[in-house]
Amino acid sequence: MSHSNLSQSDNMSPFEGQVAKRVGPHYGKVFLTFARNSLVRDMTFRLNFILQCLSSIGWTAMNVGFYLILFQYTGSIGEDTGWDQDRFFIFLATTWFINALVQAFFMPNAQEFSEMIRTGGLDFALLKPIDTQFLISFRRIDWSALSNFVAGLLILGYALYCLATRQDDPMIPSAMSVVLYLFFILCGVAIMYSLMISLSATSIWLGRNQTLYNFWFYITNFSRYPMEIYNRGWGQSLYGFFTFVIPVLLVVNIPARLLAKPIDPRTEYEWMLVGWGLLATLLSVILSRWVFKMALLSYRSASS
Amino acid sequence: MKTNDKERKLIVTVTSSPTQPSDERIGENGTGIAWRLSMWWTILQTALEERLVYRGDFAIGTLMRFLPIITQIFLWSAVFDAIGAQSSVDDAGVSSADDMTQGLEIGGFGFRDMVAYYLLTMIARAFSSMPGLASGIALQIREGEIKRYLIQPIDLIGFLLLTRIAHKLAYYAIAVFPFALVFYLCRDFFAGGWPPAHVLVAFIASLIMSFLIGFFFEAAIGMIGFWFLEVSSLLFIFMLFSFFLSGHMFPLTLLPEGVGTFVQLLPFKYLAYFPAAVFLGKIPEDQLAFEMMVQAGWLVFFIVLCRVGYARGVKRYSGFGG
Predict the structure, then answer these.
(1) A228 interfacial to chain B (CB closer than 8 Å)
(2) C-alpha to C-alpha distances, B311 to A39, B143, B152, B155, B233, nearest whole angstrom
(3) How many CB atoms lie within 10 A of CB A178?
């Protein structure tokens, strides 16, 4: 029976004994329930679900088509960057994984969050005996967005196969780099999540932030290409800004570099970047948590 | 919903208010031309006012729409660098990095042309994109609102076209500032400067036609709502295709030979690629007039398609209740 528990229950003296044995929701179970409910909801409109999957596959095919055409004309993206066709397709697959995860788990929730603030529905979320940020962030899962994840797997499989079997300079990634890859994909998702939840939390202050929300799409647009392409002329200020202030450039670049190894052997600078990526993930999660709490403090329900 | 209310109110004022000067004029000459003009004017005014309410938010939103262009600039400059480096290895005569990318072209587009192309497609899309048109028509069919066009002396397609023109005019009235700013900042990418007068005229004509093609194309898709009540997923697929095939994603000349020829035959290219290509002089002078005529032909095709679709749809349609 720790001291802190006792002091927390000071003002609820009749139930002292019960409160000390902390009763909290089982977050894993709650999450699974959310996931199941969303799946049931998605499966209710099955044709719609299939069409949504098909259209995201179509979107993927168009992007793949565009890059295939691009690589008809060039050997790599950028001079001496090492991003040739196979390696860039690893990069593309990484973008797809991260986008699929963000769109499946967080996008519908962030949208709903802004709407809840506007309509006052947030009141009910605040009343529930569970961490509000958790409730807001995981309530709904868009299962159809995960079709992009599958598409990403296909692209990745194909690119890795080509990379391993090609004539000049074939490469098979080491087990270590695969582990790091998976870990930094999760870090990338965490950075994106932080950005998204902070942006949607600002709608508490701004009332309605359609423009800000679009802004999210435009910012993440920067993360879709190898970061080296910005490292020239006035692009360097963008490079700095989106690496150190809003670290969206790290999101895809770090895992993709770790797996695809465009420059062999790895440079000192790359490892520093990986270290910064880890730090940036932690910082953005903490910062977004803070922004979210600050925003909640200024929430004044949309009274009826 | 909000706009629908407004439109309904508008129709009420146009058709039933006895104090309107326009109504008196009908009584005077009975031709209905003046009445019609005044109705158009009212529709225009309402749409303009609607637009101008959120002008600040809207101007910023338009500026942001150019953000992806920045990525495109860096992507293509990296690509052209790599091609330049490759070809200079093949032929060691070239000296500096600037020279390398200077004469390089892929699909007939050099680096600066490429960026200019993306900027120009933004203009073309500003004309040809019709957000909410097809889904709006389908919604009106589903909810039965279409009935009012069947009993009132207002033509659905004409009314929608007028509102669209008004919305677009209001849009340009504000969007011209962010557009001018971005184009001024990017003026160096337009290597050829302003095109000659006749090309400019062709460009403007192709923009106007791309607006009309965009309108009748989408309206025709909306008419499918008479047969299938839910068109949103169909519409999404259409948008996906049009993004790729209109040349919004990349200049269509980059496509490989066979596919490219086929895609050039489709009407999608008039939504983005064609006006930009006209401006940049990528359409050979002697073919320009012919190509413009083909565009006009497509326009006529879509007008007819839309009208036939509407007429047939109305025949199928049955409205119940009030």
Answers:
(1) yes
(2) 42, 19, 16, 11, 24
(3) 12
Which of A132, A141, A136, A184 is CA-nearest to residue A38? A141
Q: Judge whether B120 and B183 are in contact, CB under 8 Å.
A: no
Given an 8 Å threshold on Cβ–Cβ distance, is B71 in contact with A215?
no
Q: Best mutation site among A73, A81, A210, A232 for testing chain B: the one with the most B CBs within 10 Å?
A: A73
Assess contact for A122 and A116: CB atoms under 8 A: yes
Buried-exposed string B140-155: b where 16+ CB fall within 10 A, e elsewhere: bbeeeebbebeeeebe
Q: Answer whether B71 sits within 8 Å of A73, measured CB to CB.
A: no
For chain B, what is the domain count? Answer: 1
Mark yes or no for CB contact A210/B86 under 8 Å. no
Q: What is the domain extent for residue B246?
A: 40-91+102-314
pTM for the complete prediction? 0.81
Query: Which residue from B minimizes the CA distance to A76?
Result: B82
CB contact under 8 A, A218 and B86: no
Count of beta carbons in the 10 Å neighbourhood of residue B42: 18
DSSP-assigned letters across all residues of B69-93: HHHHHHHHHHHHHHHHHHHHHHSTT
A189 and A102 in contact (C-beta within 8 Å)? yes
Render the burial of B219-241: b for 16+ CB within 10 Å, e for the rest. Answer: bbbbbbbbeeeebebbbbebbbe
The answer to whether the Cβ–Cβ distance between B71 and A69 falls below 8 Å is no
How close B36 gets to chain A, by Cα (Å)? 37
The one-digit pLDDT tens for each residue of chain B (322 residues) are 344 444 444 444 444 333 444 444 444 444 678 887 887 788 778 877 777 777 777 777 788 888 888 888 899 988 888 888 877 766 554 444 454 556 788 888 888 889 999 999 999 999 998 888 888 998 888 888 888 888 877 788 888 898 888 888 888 888 888 899 989 988 888 887 788 888 999 999 999 999 999 999 999 999 988 888 777 778 888 888 888 899 988 999 999 888 889 999 999 999 999 999 999 988 888 889 999 999 999 999 999 999 999 999 988 887 765 5
Chain A residue whose CA is closest to B66: A218
Which chain B residues touch A224 with a CB distance below 8 Å? 71
Integer CA distances (angstroms), A175 to A149, A170, A181, B301, B303, in order = 21, 16, 10, 59, 61
Chain B CB contacts of A76 under 8 Å are 82
| Helix (H), strand (E) at residue B284 | none
- Which residue from B74, B236, B254 is facing A69, i.e. has the nearest CB? B254
Chain A CB contacts of B263 under 8 Å are none
CA distance, residue A288 to nearest chain B CA (Å): 23
